[in-house]
């Protein structure tokens, strides 16, 4: 496998997307560099001393690590902070790259050993990582404005649901405010859905020069609200984004058993949270990131890999729009309302 060849295929936009899966975003960017918190050795971020140089495609940590490394080594460092000792093969896969394209000969026995080692780790690792809490009074700077929030109301999120999840509006930044809470209702981060056309739609709020973010792999959005019902039915639907959880609430009210991972990756910490509620069944409800049958087939293989990891702990099924006419491209399975969602739910693929 030519690691250099693989690395050359990853540009700075992909770097940002890969790292955003862990809940982190650049604190500064220009044409030459990206600057991140020191996520290489701090699970919650740390000082802004991790530099990514776009020309060399290398990170340099100017504090504790005091060394340079590529994106794959960074992924290994970040996973190690979370209790996982992963191979370079697994790190490349977490970047969304099909590593089989770079093997002339594939050692399937070695791959199987890697997978079995991962399963063994998943079965035994039960460490819970506590997240830092934010001052709840930060939210008082934002307002509940029905007119400003009507864009989400028109998409199927009721005002009652917005109140329940403490959704607000920031008139200064022109963004919808999405607080994120841990299982015990501690405020751990605040994301904004920005409407100014100047970059990412979703990103953490900055307050008093503090980035109000948390590693997304360490929590499940909506679990604090829906934990009682999830525990009572021992089942959870896992969406990608917060809006899907809000739409579920608007349809099913207190019978909402959904959470969101803020991406597709599912960590051991998130598995532990579900295990704490005695969940026996999970349903993966990822967005319809496919237009053709071939794209659907490729996504099916990708999601089955995730499902097989979860299979160690739960009964698992996956939602797909097999007819490709119920959902639009990039839609969440809940986006077209209750009837369509329940049709797709009945046709789910059991693993």
What can you see in these coordinates?
The chain has a five-stranded antiparallel sheet with strand order 1-2-3-4-5. A five-stranded mixed sheet has the order 13-12-14-15-16. The radius of gyration is 20 Å and the shape is globular. A hairpin with a 4-residue loop joins strand 6 (168-170) and strand 7 (175-181). It has helices at residues 3-8, 12-20, 71-81, 88-94, 108-124, 146-153, 159-164, 223-233, 242-252, 268-276, 293-310, 338-346, and strands spanning 28-29, 33-36, 50-53, 58-61, 67-69, 168-170, 175-181, 187-194, 202-204, 206-207, 210-211, 235-239, 258-260, 281-285, 315-318, 349-350. It is α+β, with helices and mostly antiparallel strands. The longest helix is centred in the last third of the chain and has 18 residues, at 293-310. It is built from twelve helices and 16 strands. The protein has three domains: 3-124, DNA Primase, Chain A; 136-214, DNA primase DNAg catalytic core, N-terminal domain (Alpha-Beta Complex); 223-350, Dna Topoisomerase Vi A Subunit, Chain: A, domain 2.
Write the layout of secondary structure elements.
Layout: H1 3-8, H2 12-20, E1 28-29, E2 33-36, E3 50-53, E4 58-61, E5 67-69, H3 71-81, H4 88-94, H5 108-124, H6 146-153, H7 159-164, E6 168-170, E7 175-181, E8 187-194, E9 202-204, E10 206-207, E11 210-211, H8 223-233, E12 235-239, H9 242-252, E13 258-260, H10 268-276, E14 281-285, H11 293-310, E15 315-318, H12 338-346, E16 349-350
Parallel strand pairs: 12-13, 12-14, 14-15
Antiparallel strand pairs: 1-2, 2-3, 3-4, 4-5, 6-7, 7-8, 8-9, 10-11, 15-16
Helix pairs in contact: 3-4
């Amino acid at each position: 496998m030519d690691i250099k060849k693989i690395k050359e295929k990853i540009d700075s936009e992909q770097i940002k997307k890969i790292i955003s899966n862990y809940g982190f975003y650049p604190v500064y960017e220009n044409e030459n560099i990206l600057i991140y918190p020191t996520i290489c050795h701090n699970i919650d971020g740390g000082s802004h001393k991790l530099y990514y140089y776009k020309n060399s495609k290398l990170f340099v940590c100017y504090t504790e690590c005091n060394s340079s490394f590529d994106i794959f080594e960074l992924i290994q460092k970040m996973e190690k902070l979370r209790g996982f000792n992963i191979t370079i093969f697994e790190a490349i896969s977490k970047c969304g790259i099909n590593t089989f394209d770079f093997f002339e000969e594939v050692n399937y026995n070695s791959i199987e050993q890697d997978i079995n080692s991962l399963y063994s780790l998943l079965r035994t690792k039960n460490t819970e990582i506590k997240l830092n809490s934010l001052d709840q009074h930060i939210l008082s700077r934002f307002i509940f404005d029905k007119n400003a929030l009507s864009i989400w109301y028109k998409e199927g999120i009721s005002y009652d649901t917005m109140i329940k999840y403490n959704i607000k509006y920031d008139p200064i930044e022109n963004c919808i405010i999405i607080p994120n809470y841990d299982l015990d209702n501690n405020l751990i981060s605040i994301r904004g859905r920005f409407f100014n056309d100047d970059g990412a739609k979703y990103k953490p709020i900055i307050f008093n020069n503090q980035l109000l973010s948390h590693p997304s792999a360490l929590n499940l959005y909506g679990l604090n609200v829906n934990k009682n019902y999830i525990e009572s039915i021992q089942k959870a639907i896992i969406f990608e984004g917060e809006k899907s959880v809000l739409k579920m609430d608007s349809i099913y009210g207190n019978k909402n058993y959904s959470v969101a991972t803020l991406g597709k990756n599912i960590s051991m910490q998130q598995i532990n949270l579900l295990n704490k509620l005695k969940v026996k069944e999970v349903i993966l409800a990822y967005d319809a990131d496919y237009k053709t049958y071939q794209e659907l087939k490729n996504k099916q293989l990708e999601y089955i890999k995730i499902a097989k990891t979860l299979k160690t702990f739960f009964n698992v099924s996956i939602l797909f729009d097999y007819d490709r006419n119920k959902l639009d491209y990039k839609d969440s399975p809940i986006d077209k309302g209750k009837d369509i969602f329940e049709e797709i739910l009945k046709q789910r693929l059991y693993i």
